[in-house]
Amino acid sequence: MIKVTTLVENTSISPEFRHKHGLCLYIETLKHRILFDLGSNGLFLENAKKLGVDIAQIDTVIISHGHADHGGALARFFEVNHIAKVYIRENAFDKHKIKAMGMLFDVGLDESLKKHPQVVLTDSRTVIDDELMLFSDIDTHKFHTKANEKLYAQVDGRMIVDDFTHEQNLIITEGDNKILFAGCAHAGIVNIKDKAEKIIGVKLNSVVGGFHLYNPASRKRESDELIYGIADSLNDGATIYYTCHCTGKKVFEMMKKILGEKIEYISTGRVFSL
Asked: How far is 227 from 241, CA to CA, in rounded Å?
């Protein structure tokens, strides 16, 4: 049984837990105490204390991609924890920006942390052990999202539209239980799920993460056609979805019309088992 505790998300289950745009999930497996993303500031520490999670005992951190709302709190984590390995793609430390009002604004990580002794730079496929596997290198041809067109990365000294090769995803395996964790699914949740199932050779039991279908800055969501198309594609009868963050509550409600009880929304303070 895998236990997931939502430490940071855009919403919360009650006023007891402060919330903020971003994501941080605490995951307990048979072998590991994991943080999947950290959020942008120290809020994960505050909520962890309330939820009985000892951050000093975390042994594994996965940073899904190089945006501050997922890895901006890395320096705060290192102040508290001195034992965990932090797995992150090397180019996640490149400069990353978002275009708004015709200007580019920084949304990247602290580049100086790239050489921190706890940081492990990952490849497009990294097997940590028989429980944990990281992968990227996604074919992004299905369900292109317009929101990605506002996001940029520095490549060879030039700022270009981000191709999200710095994004990685986590597969956890416990026996026959196969769980996919995705941060923002910039490469497309359908594309990522397809790649995960190709790797493991069977259908996933559960998928947890944001689907990047809503932009809180502009308050705009992707088209109805795209949202319903993704929901239809995910509705394969085998997988349960726990979504959050950049999916947005309105998009979640739209997808629930198709997926029904197969999809749930997870907010800060929510604890559930997979």
From this structure: 15
